[in-house]
Amino acid sequence: MERARPRRSRHRQRDEGRRAAGGRHDLGPAVRARRLGARRPRGGAARDRRAVPDADLDAPRSSPAGEVPLHQALAFPIADLAMHGWDLHRSCGRSAELPADLQVFCQELIDSVPEEAMRRPGGFAPATTPPENPSPTDRLMAFLGRNVD
C-alpha cells in the first residue's frame, strides 16, 4: 500500500513556486520595521512618543555607537531586525532584497558607526567580497560580513 504524502501548506506551496520561478521574497520583518519608523528615522520620534507616552525618548541609552538618546537607539533594533530577516531568508535558500528605503536607512546607520566599533569581538565579521553586479542589499550584507554568493 502506498503511503499518502503529507499536505504542504498553501504558503509553502506559494514560496516553492516563487523560488522555482526565480522570484524574490519580501521580508515580512523588514516591512514591519519600516512601519515602526525605519521609513523616516527622524520623524519616528513623534510616533514613538505616541506609542510609549511615558517613555523619556531623550534619555541616554548605550548603543553600538556609544551613548545616544533612546529615540536614536531604537534605530539599531530596526536595522537588526531587517538584517536578521535577510539572514533567515538566505538560510532557507531564498533570495531577499530589502525595500529601498529600509536599505538606505540601514546603510546610513552602519555608516554612522566607527569601523573599529563595528568589527570588535561580538560585532560584525570582516567584509566579504560581493558577487559581480551586486544589488544594494547584497553590497550592504557583504560589507557586514555576510556571504552573499
Topology:
Blueprint: H1 10-20, H2 28-38, H3 44-51, E1 60-63, E2 66-69, H4 70-73, H5 75-91, H6 100-111, H7 115-118, H8 136-143
Antiparallel strand pairs: 1-2
What does this structure look like?
The protein starts with 9 loop residues before the first helix and ends in a 6-residue tail after the last helix. Helix 5 crosses helix 6 (100-111). The protein has one domain. It has helices at residues 10-20, 28-38, 44-51, 70-73, 75-91, 100-111, 115-118, 136-143, and strands at 60-63, 66-69. The chain is mainly α.
Work out the count of structural domains: 1
What is the typical, i.e. mean, pLDDT? 75
Q: Report, as a whole number of angstroms, the end-to-end distance.
A: 44 Å
Characterize the quaternary organization of these chains: single chain
Helical amount: 40-55%
Essential attributes:
149 residues; mainly alpha
Question: In a few lines, what is going on in this structure?
Answer:
The chain has 149 residues and is mainly α. It contains 8 helices and 2 strands. The longest helix has 17 residues, at 75-91.
